[in-house]
Amino acid sequence: MFEKLKQYKDLRDQAKKLQSQLGDEQVRVDHRGIALVMNGNQEVVSLEIQPERLTPDEKQALERDLKEAMNDAVKKVQNLMAAKFRSGGYNLPGLS
């Protein structure tokens, strides 16, 4: 039983270490006048929208492009997470 608790603690420590490392990483997406920066914890760090995109007739296109930019950023972060996980020697049961 104590061995299982130790494994759980080790696993939790590995997850915290990975989360901390990912928080320091950032990805940037430039998409049709939108610049979005997201960190490795999938938090938006910055968002810049070109002024010409901020007109009433651009509203629907801007909403669509913003969604696409965010989805692209999430995919990049997920790829970054997978690469960090593979190269970091993390040993999670069922995932290794």
Overview of the molecule:
By secondary structure, the protein is α+β, with helices and mostly antiparallel strands. The chain has a domain at about 25-75: Nucleoid-associated protein YbaB-like domain (Ybab, Chain: A, 2-Layer Sandwich). Helices cover about 55% and strands about 20% of the residues. It has two helices and three strands, in the order αβββα. It has helices at about 1-25, 60-85; strands spanning about 25-30, 35-40, 45-50. A three-stranded antiparallel beta sheet has the order 1-2-3. Strand 1 and strand 2 form a beta hairpin. The protein starts with a helix and ends in a 9-residue tail after the last helix.
Q: How would you concisely characterize the structure shown here?
A:
With 96 residues, the chain is of the alpha+beta class.
CATH architecture of the domain at 24-76: 2-Layer Sandwich
CATH superfamily of the domain at 24-76: Nucleoid-associated protein YbaB-like domain
- Write down the Rg: 18 Å
N-end to C-end Cα span: 23 Å
Which percent bin holds the helix content? 40-55%
Sketch the major β-sheet. Answer: 3 strands, antiparallel
Question: What's the number of extended β-strand segments?
Answer: 3
Shape: elongated
**Helical stretch count?**
2
Mean pLDDT: 88
CATH fold-level label of the domain at 24-76: Ybab, Chain: A
Name the strands of the widest sheet in spatial order.
1-2-3
Kindly provide the name of the CATH class of the domain at 24-76.
Answer: Alpha Beta
Low-confidence stretches: none
Helix and strand content put the structural class at alpha+beta
Oligomer description? single chain
Q: Can you write the helix and strand succession as a string?
A: HEEEH
